[in-house]
Structures are given as structure tokens and as C-alpha cells.
Specification:
This is Helix-turn-helix transcriptional regulator. The chain is an alpha+beta fold and 274 residues long. The chain is built from 10 helices and 10 strands. A 6-stranded antiparallel beta sheet has the order 1-2-9-4-7-10. The chain has a 4-stranded antiparallel beta sheet with strand order 3-8-5-6, with no helix packed on it. A hairpin with a 2-residue loop joins strand 5 and strand 6.
Length: 274
Amino acid sequence: MDYLSRHLAGLPRRLNVAPQLDSIGFIPEKRDIVDRIFPSWNFSFVLAGEGFYELGGVRHKVRAPAVLTQWPGEPMHYGPDSAWREIFLIYPENCGEKLRELGLMRENRPFWQVGNPHRLFELAEEFETLAADAELESNTDRLDCCAVRLVLESLLEKQLGVPGRLEPELRALAGQIRRNPSRPYDWDEEAAKLGISRTTFRRFFLAYLNLPAGEFLLNARIDRARRLLIETTLPVAEIARRCGFADPFYFSRRFRLENGETASAYRDRNRVGG
């Protein structure tokens, strides 16, 4: 489907059973970066691609499928690395209380990974078909309801399929990785400790920490390396070893890839007192 944007505000509803959408749209290849304050309550369904979502100065990696939210008065900064596929839902400012009451919008849950993408993609296709129908007025109630189902489906597995105990335990593991990134981590072993499969472990870790476990570990090791480069005079090869990199040449490649400069150049540029 090509780019599509439909304005629903003011169109008649026959049943009024769901929060009424103001506007909707489909962007097959979104390339622009959003940096603005919205007057509305919005959901952005990232169906393909990856990028970032920055809120309160904290930048998060976004990988499809995922849902981003925006709300009135909050500076929003997000967008694709190159391009992503997106469905957007826009609700007027006066819908905020209803969206909160239904549990669909929470400012302390600004974005999330989708736990059941297969069902979400089915609903997205249904939504796109309704939105593209020439008889838009006959579908306003259906679109309002389908929009709620889209948000609900994106949340449902995360809310009902994940035992409550897993989030604190996975966050505790993340804290352990940050404190001691140099030790080897066996994800099969960590999954077994939680009584879940490796596949489930990977899905839950991504949902709660917004990064795959391996990438989270790599970032923690690179962060530790940055500190040691600035705070010590240890040789680069020794820093690599202390940060869990068995191969100093691999460390050098990864460091340059992540930072855009060599470890030595990073040290020279940031040396305390230098």
C-alpha cells in the first residue's frame, strides 16, 4: 500500500463504543526524524525497520515490531535509522482520560516491543484495508474499534504471558552485567535459572531491556572500556582483556565501530588533565 492519511474527526459514529480517532495513516517508508511537541495522544506502530526513541534525554533502540507513544506537552524525538514501515493513530487531546482508563496509554510505558507480532500483523492488514476503503464514513466505528484492538494486541502477551517474577529477575541480571561485564555469560544457563527456554529468555530480555542480551552485554563491555581508557594508563590490550574481550583485535574493531574512532584516539581526546 502507498502512503495513506485519513482524517476522521467530525465524521459520524453510530455506536460510540471506543475512543474516537482524529486521524490515522500508513507510511510504507518513513524516513524523517520527528522532533516536536504534539497536541494529541498518538500511537506509532513500527511494523518493519529500526531506529530510535528518545525521551527525557534517554535514547532507546527501536526494532520492529514495536509501538511508540506520544502525548501532549512532552518533547518527542524519534525516527528510523534509514526507513521504517509505520501505522499511526492520532487521538484528540480530550481522549487522554479515556485512553488511560482503558490502560492503553501510560506515560511511564512510553514504548514497548510487540510480544505477538503474527496477530498484530493480521490486525494491521485489516486496519489498512478499512482505512483505504472509499466509503470511509461507513467504517469510522470499525476503525475506532480496530485501533483499540491493535494497541491491546500489542500489549496482551507482555501483560498476560509473562510471569510477574521475570521482570525483576531480568533487570537484576542486567544490573549484574553492568557491574561485571567481563565475565562470560551463558544465555542457556541464565534461561534455565528462570525456568524458561532460551527463545523465551531472548524475547523477554528484549521486551524489558529494549536490547537483545548479547548487544546489552557488548554495550556494557564497551562502556567499561571507555571508563578504563580515560581513568587508567593500562595498555589497550589489557583493557580489552579486563572488559571480557579475548581478542584485542576484535575489541579494537568493535570499539571503532561503536565510537567512530580508535581506542587510542578516544583516550587522547578524553584523557583527564590532558
